[in-house]
Design brief:
Layout (H helix, E strand, L loop, with lengths): L1 H24 L6 H23 L7 H7 L6 H6 L13 E3 L2 E2 L5 H34 L1
Antiparallel strand pairs: 1-2
Length: about 140
């Protein structure tokens, strides 16, 4: 198991170190690259959230997944709401009307993380344009 985690965790820890250095030194406010990398990290988080939501109750047998979660399985409800759990967004995998196998945090995260990534990209673009314009003024 450790052999599988090392190639995943090592680049993640190195990336977090390089991302957090400007944060700790206070230079992040003036760095378009920091905002761009933050957008990349936020989009990766959205991807992981989507994966976590789509694999919730990841059993080939939904009845077994519901019983594993300690819930009853309502076959009639699943048939009546077939389109609900086959959509890309919002993610749902309901056992019955009152219980969803997809964690409650997944769908809000799938909205918030890309919005925050767009804001980070807008900040990066604004800082980049401001830096470029400031460089032109001092050169002339």
């Amino acid at each position: 198991m450790a052999l599988v985690l090392v190639p995943v965790l090592l680049p993640l820890m190195v990336g977090l170190w390089f991302w957090s250095r400007p944060l700790l030194s206070g230079t992040w406010r003036h760095s378009p690259a920091w905002f761009a990398w933050s957008a990349v990290l936020l989009l990766l988080g959205a991807g992981v959230s989507y994966l976590a939501g789509s694999l919730a109750g990841a059993s080939l047998d939904p009845e077994e997944a519901c019983h594993g979660a300690g819930q009853t399985y309502d076959r009639a409800y699943r048939r009546a709401h077939f389109a609900e759990y086959t959509r890309w967004f919002p993610l749902h995998d309901r056992c019955h009307a009152g219980y969803d196998l997809v964690p409650a945090w997944v769908n809000p995260a799938l909205v918030a993380l890309p919005v925050l990534a767009l804001l980070c990209l807008a900040c990066a673009a604004g800082l980049g344009v401001g830096r470029r314009r400031g460089g032109r003024r001092s050169a002339s």
